[in-house]
Design goal:
Oligomer: single chain
Largest sheet: 4 strands, mixed
Number of strands: 8
Keywords: Signal
Number of domains: 1
Radius of gyration: 23 Å
Strand content: 35-45%
Protein name: Lipoprotein
CATH class: Mainly Beta
CATH architecture: Sandwich
Signal peptide: 1-23
Number of helices: 1
Distance between the termini: 56 Å
Strand order of the largest sheet: 4-1-7-8
Length: 128
């Protein structure tokens, strides 16, 4: 019995030395949320979200995506992607970037809209 108690105390002492995991700590990032929740883009085609010229997300109607990014500038480009939906063949389109400046700890929400210049992001309220 005494050996079991000493063994338990030894194990508890060893666990006290190991640092506990924490969700706090380094939060040096910004959150970018891009949504296609509204019917502002009158197409059933999938929209590709490119961050710094790299395909990072794909959105159909009523979807959203989020990214944890380092602070600083990020170039965002949106384009229609060819897919299995009829009428979504690749074609010529205006491919321009929008530069967003992200701050540490900031949550940025944008929604996808379309006008005569093509697809672009509009700032949206967080809604909470």
């Amino acid at each position: 019995m005494i050996k079991a108690a000493l063994g338990l105390v030894g194990v508890l002492g060893a666990l006290a030395v190991v640092p506990a995991a924490s969700a706090e700590g380094n939060s040096d990032y910004s959150v970018l949320i891009i949504s296609r929740e509204r019917l502002e883009v009158a197409t059933t085609c999938e929209i590709g979200v490119y961050l710094n010229d790299q395909l990072s997300g794909r959105l159909f109607q009523e979807q959203s995506t989020s990214f944890n990014l380092p602070p600083g500038p990020v170039d965002v480009r949106l384009r229609l992607l060819p897919g299995q939906v009829p009428g979504c063949a690749p074609g010529l389109e205006n491919q321009h970037n929008q530069r967003l400046n992200l701050q540490v700890g900031q949550i940025n929400k944008y929604r996808i809209a379309m006008d005569h210049d093509g697809l672009h992001l509009k700032r949206a309220g967080l809604g909470y």
